[in-house]
Amino acid sequence: MMTFKVGLVGAGAFGIKHLLGFSKNPDCELISIASRTEEHAKIASEKFNIPKVYAGNDSWEKMIDSEKLDVVSICTPNYLHAPIILKAIEKNCHILCEKPIAISHEELEQIEPVLNAKNLIFFTSFQKRYNPIFNLVRSAIDEGILGKITSVRYFFSHYGPYKSWKALSEEKWFFDSEKAGGGVLLDLGVHCIDILQYLLGEYDKVNGINFNTSCINMDDEDNCNVLFRFK
Ligand SMILES: NC(=O)c1ccc[n+]([C@@H]2O[C@H](COP(=O)([O-])OP(=O)(O)OC[C@H]3O[C@@H](n4cnc5c(N)ncnc54)[C@H](OP(=O)(O)O)[C@@H]3O)[C@@H](O)[C@H]2O)c1
To answer: Alpha-carbon distance 8 to 116, whole Å?
Structure first.
């Protein structure tokens, strides 16, 4: 049976989680890893028996050009998602990209037509959809057990990557506006919006407020309240 040849970019905290998943999947073969710091790439390659290692800022480009990959898994800081996606599409690779897919609307507009022109699978990490609790809630809504839903409150927060899940890179990109591309709305809001759509369908009105409480040293919002009206 055919196995998918996988190359992963970004040997950080979430890269390791992707590697754990791929290494348990008999349909996948981990071929190569690319990361900015050679030591980080090597630690991951040794742990998961990945034969080829690429290091440096252009490691992802070299890897995608040199290896015959079926799948590219993208676990880099946010600002690199779109360029790596575009390169992977050019080389006809299926893509698993960490959220957020891009850091601007312009980037999404660049990705959409080239992706749609090819028969590739593109998947982003909205893993909460696979949490059994949300499946249960959706069944309860669909079966009418909860009656008419008039209001939902969804709270989501964390202490930042360096305390919450030990993001690895010394680049410390997460609180850097240009590299992260935004604050809490982009980081956590995308998960909330995905789950609300999964449970309730499409919304037609939205308003909200972003603010920075200055609890952490960052330019973007560290707090956000959003109100959606669902159709
Ligand atoms: N789905 C979720 O719930 C969830 C949760 C957390 C994070 N994420 C997402 O996962 C992504 C990674 O976050 P993280 O927490 O894993 O960060 P991280 O630990 O800092 O990992 C980022 C990795 O990317 C590598 N990298 C940076 N520039 C690179 C380049 N030019 N070429 C190749 N590799 C490069 C870094 O290498 P060095 O170590 O050498 O600097 C680092 O290993 C982000 O997009 C984040 O939003 C998703």
So the answer is: 23
Specify whether the CB–CB gap between 67 and 92 falls below 8 A: no
pLDDT at 162: 84
Question: 177 C-alpha to center of ligand 1: Å?
Answer: 15
Query: Is the Cβ atom of 9 under 6 angstroms away from ligand 1?
Result: yes
For the segment(s) 4-124, the CATH number from 3.40.50.2300, 3.40.50.720, 3.40.50.170, 1.10.132.30 is: 3.40.50.720
Which pLDDT score, from 0 to 100, does residue 216 have? 75
pLDDT of residue 214: 76
Q: Which CATH architecture has domain 132-230?
A: 2-Layer Sandwich (3.30)
The whole-number pLDDT of residue 51 equals 98
Best of 9, 45, 65, 76 to mutate for ligand 1, by most ligand atoms within 8 A of CB? Answer: 76
